[in-house]
Backbone:
């Protein structure tokens, strides 16, 4: 039978993080590299990934790793083999799965990074025991992932979950996507910093604390600095985070109308603000929820796995595809006697990696040639 561990690789805008992960979602070894600049060729990015994988395999020894999962910031095609577009990288219709397989010689799965994080939180983090989860990652923008009935919902073309570009304000702020009024213009790390800087640039007296923290230079302001000020009790910073939280609640109410999940897991850098963000989000969510008072309300909780979620999720998705029987064993009914069904091995292969079940056979064929 296959080796015990899988590798997860999380490719973000600044770093390529990798880890060797066991069946319980525990990271046993880590490696990382800087993300190559977007002007470099796809081959340079591949070299970086292969380097991280080789480093990890060297740490745990040969024969211990059965598959490699990639989570990339970008649009991953429905074939889960091709990165259609990655804003931080040179990838355009890049056949990443096959290129990496040729060099690494292990089964490769490719997914969007937010899908990987959502999967990790569902399997091992804040979403355990829930059948329907929606994850919202507040970073510089908004990343999203959907797990419904024990499978990642990727959409017909592989790019579901781009919640950040739902319009929440008609004719609102211009977004880098070209539209106006996108959710991430109001609820994200960038939104938080933009609003704080506006106060600094206007020499507002309510921003004295924030100004002192950056020595008077608005360019030095960051999201974590605003969160730090809020946690230290600065009323302006608390209000700025509450604004982001209220907009978070608006978007979540819309997502509840569409997906009706049992839990919203909030991740990304801004989620470090905890209740300063989530409190206002819950309040607004309850006020805006369709059918409020007449329907159960989804929980809104902070993610638990932090920056490791992408690595853990990518590795576990690779395992789910290469060894669906392991996941079937792990997919017990939820603790509250709730809605998650016990799945058989065959159904699990179908549910977790459709159309991956066919691909597992393809890999096996290739390996036994
Ligand atoms: Zn947009």
Residues:
């Amino acid at each position: 039978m296959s080796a015990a561990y899988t590798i997860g690789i999380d490719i973000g805008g600044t770093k390529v993080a990798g880890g060797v992960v066991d069946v319980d979602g525990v990271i046993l070894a880590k490696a990382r590299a800087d993300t190559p600049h977007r002007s470099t060729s796809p081959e340079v990015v591949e070299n970086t990934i292969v380097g991280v994988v080789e480093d990890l395999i060297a740490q745990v020894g040969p024969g211990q790793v059965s598959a490699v999962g990639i989570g990339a910031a970008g649009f991953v095609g429905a074939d889960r083999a091709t990165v259609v577009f990655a804003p931080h990288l040179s990838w355009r219709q890049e056949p990443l799965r096959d290129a990496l397989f040729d060099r690494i010689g292990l089964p490769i799965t490719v997914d969007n990074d937010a899908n990987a994080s959502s999967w990790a939180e569902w399997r091992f983090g804040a979403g355990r025991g829930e059948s329907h989860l929606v994850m919202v990652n507040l970073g510089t923008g908004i990343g999203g992932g959907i797990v419904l009935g024990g499978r990642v919902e990727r959409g017909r073309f592989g790019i579901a979950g781009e919640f950040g570009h739902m319009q929440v304000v008609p004719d609102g702020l211009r977004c880098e996507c070209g539209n106006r009024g996108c959710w991430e213009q109001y609820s994200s790390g960038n939104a938080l910093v933009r609003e704080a800087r506006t106060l600094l640039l206007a020499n507002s007296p309510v921003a004295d604390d924030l100004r002192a923290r950056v020595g008077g230079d608005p360019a030095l302001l960051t999201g974590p600095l605003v969160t730090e000020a809020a946690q230290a009790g600065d009323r302006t910073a608390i209000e700025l985070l509450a604004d982001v939280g209220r907009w978070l609640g608006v978007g979540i109410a819309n997502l509840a109308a569409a997906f009706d999940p049992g839990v919203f897991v909030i991740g990304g850098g801004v989620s470090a603000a905890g209740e300063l963000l989530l409190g206002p989000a819950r309040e607004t969510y309850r006020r805006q929820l369709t059918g409020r008072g007449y329907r159960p309300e989804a929980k809104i909780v902070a993610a638990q796995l932090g920056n490791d979620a992408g690595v853990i999720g990518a590795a576990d998705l690779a395992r789910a595809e290469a060894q669906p029987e392991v996941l079937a064993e792990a997919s017990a009914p939820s603790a509250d006697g709730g809605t998650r069904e016990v799945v058989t091995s065959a159904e699990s292969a179908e549910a977790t990696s459709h159309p991956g079940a066919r691909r597992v056979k393809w890999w096996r064929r290739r390996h036994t040639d």
About this structure: Residues 235-259 form the longest helix (25 residues).
